[in-house]
C-alpha cells in the first residue's frame, strides 16, 4: 500500500473514520486512497475554516477526533481560526496537511510556505512524515496525541511523495492515556474549604459540564450553600429539564465580577481561574475578587468528574442534586426582538437537540429561555474566533445523524464560513440555521464604548455597520442549496422553525432582529 | 494623541491612506481614531481574506501599500492565504494586527495566540510596538519595509494598551530604498549570450511585465531572434493593442517544457528560474532544459526595467518593438463553452480595464481572445492560494475608481472569499464579476490524473464535484447586495456583460460553462 493508504487505514483502525476535506493537488493521492478504505467517510468543505470547525464540532459530540485534509500552508492558514477555537475547547483534531514532495521543496515553488511555523502556533502536536514507511506510525501517534487528556490539535504534515510512495503499513492504534487522578488529599483539602463557613464559589469547565459533573456540583452546592458557575464558553454543555441548571460565568467582566462578588474562596475544576476576555483601560484582567483564594481541585488533564464526585461524596453524602423542572416559555407574538426570539426557541426546541450557539449579543437572553426545555447540548465559541457556529453545526450533525442540530448564528459571524451551508445541503444534514440578522457588528458597538474610545464618529460607526447593503441570508442559503425563509415576527419565526423541524434536512431562517443595544 | 492616532497619522503622511479592515475589540481605538484623521479611508471587509486580498490588489494598481486592520492571531490566520499570494507577488502590504494589552497577555485569555509565529511565516517584516511613544516610528518603518524592493508584507503588532495610551507622535516617512543597479558588466555579458548564435529565451517577471519592460524585451527578441516569455503568474501584466504581446510560460510543466524546448540559454530578469508548480512522480521539478545555461540579468530587487532597456540598447539599437494590432474576436453564439466565453470577453472588454483573473482551467483560452483588445492590466493568482480573485478586484477598484474592473472567477475558488461581493456593493465599486460556474474543482480532476493516482473511484470523484447541489451565484450575489444575472449562452453573456458595463457599480454574471475537460 502507498503512504496515503496506510494513513487512512491506520486512522480508521484508531476509530477516526470521518475526514473533513478541502484538498488540492498535493493531496490527490490521499483523495484517491479514500476508495480503497471503504470505512473512511470523506466530507467536502468548500473552505478550510468549514473543515476545521466541522472537525471540532464532530469531536465535541462523537468524543473522538475526525481528520481534516488541508492543502499546504495556505490551507492550514484558512483553517487556523477554527483550529484556535478547537485548541481552546481541548478538542481532539487530527489535521493532515499535504505538502510539496520532499525533493520539490528546495525549488521554492509558489505554494511553498512555512507550514511548521503556522502549525506550531497551535501549541499542540506537530510532526512531518519523512518516509512512506513512517506514515502509519506517525498517524497512530497523531491520533493518540490528539486524545491525550484534555485533548489537543495534532497536525501531521504529509509530503506528496511520502503519500504516493510504496511501502506503507497500517499501524495498530496507541491506547490514549487516561486522565491523571488528583493528588491524594486534594479532595479533603477542598472539602475543608467548603466547610469553612466562608463564602465559596465552584467554577467548573471541560468534562465537568456534562451530566455526571453537573450532578456532583449540584449536590455540593445543595449541601454547602456554595455558589457554582460554569466557565463562560464551555465546549459542550449538557442542560435542560432533568439536569441541574448551573449559571455560566458572564462574558462581560462586569457580569462576572458581580457573580463572584463577596466570595472568599474559588474552587476551580476542569478550567482555569477566570480572566477578562479582553483588557479594558483601568480595569483588572483577573476576575477573582481581591482577597479571595483560588483552590484548584482538578486541572484540565485530571479526572475532573471523578474529583467532583469524590468531593460530593465527602461534603454531600446522601444529598441529591437539584434538577431543572420542565418548563417552556409561552410562544410570543409581534415583531421580533432580542427578547422574544429566544422564547420561540425555548418554546419549540425539539427533544435531544444540539445547539451550536454563536449568537453573540443577540443570544444574551437565550440560556434562561431554554433552561427548562428538553435536554440538549450547547456547543459554544470557545476561542473567540468568530465564524465557528455553522461549521461546528456541520460536524455535530455528521457525528449525530439522529439528533436535530440547531445553529443559532449571528449575522456578522456567519459570513466568515458561510459556505458551510453548502455542506449542510450536500450531506443532507439535519441542521436548522437561524441567522440573527441585526445588520451590525453589535458586539463591537458595545465594545467601542467599553474600551473608552474617545470618539465614535461616522467613520468608526461605518466599520461596525452591516446595513449598507443589508444582507439577505435566505437568498445566500438558497444559492448554496439550502431551503430558506425570512422571519420578521415571532409568529413567522415559530411557524418556520416548526416547519423546519418537521422536515429532516437543512433549513435556514433569516430572522430579522433589532440589535440588543 | 494616542497610539492609534499616531499610527494612522504616520501612515497617511507616508501615503498610506486606505485601510481595509475587519476589526475586533482590541482594535477599537484604531477604529475610533479614523474619525480624527480624515485622510484615511476605512473599507470594511466581512472576512480577513477579503481584507488582505484587497490590500494586495490595491497595491498592485496604486503602486503603494494599503494598510489592513486584523483582529489578533485568528484574524491574521484568516488573512494568511491572501498574504501568501501578496508575498509571492512582492506586493507591499502594511498589516496592523491588534493584540491584547501587554499586561493582559500573561492571563492567556481565550483569544491569546502566537501572532509572531504566524506573522513570521510570511518571511517579510514583523515588529511589535512596545510603547505608545514608539508607534509612529514603528509605523514609518513598516511602510518603508513594505516598499523596500521588490516589496513585501510588513506586519505591525499593536497591543491594545499601546494603541489607547497617550504620548503618540506622528513620524515623518522614511524614503524607500531604490532598486539596486545590476552589476557592472552584467548587461554586456548577457548581450554576448544573445549574440552567441545559440538558441536563447528571455524570461521576465515583476516590474518588467509593464510597458517599458515589455517594449525592451520586444526590441531584444526582434533584433536577436530570441524567444521571450513572461513568468506564469505575474502580479500585474500590461497587455492589449499597442503593447508587445509576449507569451506567458504555461502552468502545466508539460507546456513550459514544450515552450522552452531546444534552448541553450535562459536569460532571467525580475523573476526566478522556472520550476514546476507541483511535483509529479517521475517528472523533474526544474523546468530549465537539460544542458541549458541560466543567466540572471536582474534579480527581483534590481532595477529590472533599467537592465532590460540597457540590454536592448546594447543588442537592438535602433530596433523598434513589435506592437500588438487591435483585433477582437467575433461575438460567438450558442451554449456557453470553455471556448466561446473568452471570445465574449475579448469582443467586449472595455477600454482601460483591469482584469482580476482567477479562472483556473476555464480561462486557458483567455489570453489569446484578449490579446488585441484595448490595453488593459491583468492581475493573476501569484501564490496559488485560491480565493484571491474577488478580493484583488475589490482592492484594484478602490485604487482606480475611474477604471472598469472585470473579475473573472472560477466557481470553486470564489467560495473562499465570497463576501468580497458585499464590499463591492458597500463601496459601489465598478466591478463586473463573471463566475465560471462548471460545478467542479475541474483543475483537481485534471491533477488527479496527472499525479498518477492509481484509482479515481466514486469517493475521490465526489470530493472534486460541486454539483450536488449546484450553486446559484446570482442568488448568493443578490443576497449580498450585488445585482446579478445568469447566462447559459454566449448571447446572454454578451448581453449581460454589455449591460453591466453600461451601468457603473458592481454586477455579477453567473456563467454556466461546461468543464474544459
How would you name the CATH homologous superfamily of the largest domain in chain A?
Thiamin diphosphate (ThDP)-binding fold, Pyr/PP domains
The Cα radius of gyration of chain A reads: 24 Å
Q: What is the name of the CATH architecture of the largest domain in chain A? A: 3-Layer(aba) Sandwich
Structural class of chain A: alpha/beta
Rounded average pLDDT of chain A: 96
3D architecture notes:
The structure is a homodimer. The first copy, chain A, is α/β, with parallel strands linked by helices and about 525 residues long. Chain A folds into three domains: about 5-165, Rossmann fold, CATH 3.40.50.970; about 185-315, TPP-binding domain (Rossmann fold, 3-Layer(aba) Sandwich), CATH 3.40.50; about 340-510, Rossmann fold (3-Layer(aba) Sandwich). In chain A, about 35% of the residues lie in helices and about 15% in strands. The first copy, chain A, contains 20 helices and 17 strands. In chain A, the strands form three sheets. In chain A, strands 9-13-12-14-15-17-16 form a seven-stranded mixed β-sheet, with helices on both faces. The first copy, chain A, has a six-stranded parallel β-sheet with strand order 2-1-3-4-6-5, with helices on both faces. Chain A has a four-stranded parallel β-sheet with strand order 8-7-10-11. In chain A, strand 1, helix 2 and strand 2 form a beta-alpha-beta unit. In chain A, helix 1 (about 5-15) runs parallel beside helix 6, helix 3 packs across helix 14 and helix 12 (about 340-350) runs parallel beside helix 20. The radius of gyration of chain A is 24 Å and the shape is globular. The N and C termini of chain A lie far apart (about 60 Å). The mean pLDDT of chain A is about 95. At the A-B interface, helix 2, helix 4, helix 5, helix 7 and helix 16 of A face helix 2, helix 4, helix 5, helix 7 and helix 16 of B.
